[in-house]
Every structure is written in structure tokens, then in C-alpha cells.
Amino acid sequence: MADDNPTDDSRLVPLDLPEGQARILRRDLSGWIDSLEADLREPERLADPERARADLDAYRRLLDAVKEGGVRVPDAEAHRLLREAAEAHDEESGYAEVAAVHDAMHALLAALADGEG
Fold this sequence. Notes:
Blueprint: E1 11-14, H1 19-40, H2 49-68, E2 70-73, H3 76-93, H4 95-116
Antiparallel strand pairs: 1-2
Helix pairs in contact: 1-2
């Protein structure tokens, strides 16, 4: 991974992602990058073009990290963006409810299996 600022206090944390997870992240990050690049072609239409540029830079760092197998930390901007994306995905997909239903069903299945033994 390129070291843009060798005197900073950041450190490289290795990523050990299964290929399926890396593929998902590459796809999503590339899509977000493409969207921001398109938005920035007309910056006057954006409420905060500087924020959009900063977000674009952070998404690029995250994509590089996934591709290269290591992420430089700390990176508050990248952390914020990924946290917001994860929370939005969880909310949109109903993850909390899916996980609760899964746990409840498997708890009942475990009780049924114990009764059959």
C-alpha cells in the first residue's frame, strides 16, 4: 500500500477478508465512487462540494485498502462513511428483525431437538 505521508502517526492494519466479502465491498465502494464522481461533474448542484470531494477521497482509500489487503488507521472520514453505510444497509434490509427471527427460530429448534434426543 502506498505511503502518502511516511511521517504521520497512522499504521497499516492487514485485512483478511474472504473473497466474497472483498467482492461485495469492491462493488459497493466502486458504485459510491462512480456516483460521487458523477455528482462532482456539476459541483454547483451540490450543497457541499468540498464534503463530496472529501467523501470521494475516503471511498477511494477504502477501495484501495480492500484491493491491497490493508487499511491505514486512523481514518475518521472513512470510518464515518462506512459506519453510516453499514447502518443504512442494516435499516433498509431489516437486519435487526431478520436476526431476531433467526435467533428465535433456532432457539425453538434447539429445544425441539433436545426433546427428541
